[in-house]
Predict the structure.
Amino acid sequence: MIALSRAKLFSACLSLAVLAAAGCGKKSGEAAATAPADDRRALTGTVISLSAERGTALVDHEEIPGYMPRMTMEFRVTPGDLKVLREGLRIRGKMYELSGDYYLEEIWPVDPAAERIVQTAGQALRQDTVTRGASPYREVGEFLPDFALYDQDGKVVQITQLRGRQIVLNFIFTRCPDAKMCPATVMKMMQLQAMAREAGVADLELVSITLDPEYDTPGVLRDYADSRGIDTSNYHFLTGPERAIKDMLAQLGVLVFQNGPLLQHTLATVLIDPRGKIVHRVDGSEWRAEDFAGRLRRAEGPKTP
Ligand SMILES: [Cu+2]
């Protein structure tokens, strides 16, 4: 198990060397120079069975050219991935071997029907972003563009499915090391969730889209939510194709830029009304849950006695 955490740490550091978070302002502080070369190998396969006790997935994987023939083998996976995976699911991921154990990470579901939805929505979003020209940014009063991404359970969420509900949306990433940025924002989203519940607002959906989709797979988002005790019944952590996320960032006026090894980003939180219109926006990390809670409309449906 020590080997596991060390391997995890190394692979995290390795990615941090490329993407260490800032803006989010600080360096990770990890000695990325000591990380080994990336010897992970891309793999595609089908989940045969899962073992929660062992923390493993048995996968029938295709040939890995020059490394391994097609075979069924057991991989260690994170608790989050264990929840995302299910028997019969096609997946792609990256495997590596350490001290005789095999590990699988960067796991994505490969479901043709789901991929078609995400791709089609991504193409429409791309077209829309291009059509909007040099400044695709949508102001308060405009509609949120349509998009489809994967949530923390690996399921597709189309924003059109949430029409008719009030949405509070922003962007975060799980490796953000600056407590005042993404971690604080997620905490405020949780506060907002609790406030809305207390106020009897039953149609609130919270959405945090990752701005680091390469690292933030559905399983990583699941682990992130679980480690914070987040109720994901109406809080969706979304990830998916980088292109689609970049288009969403552009349309919502959130900047992400690489500063040497650091990933820096701005922050914006928007409220979307049930028709899909952006009705409120606060830039920066200083937004308040109370402010958004106070703007939520209560359902005017028939009251139950
Ligand atoms: Cu951040």
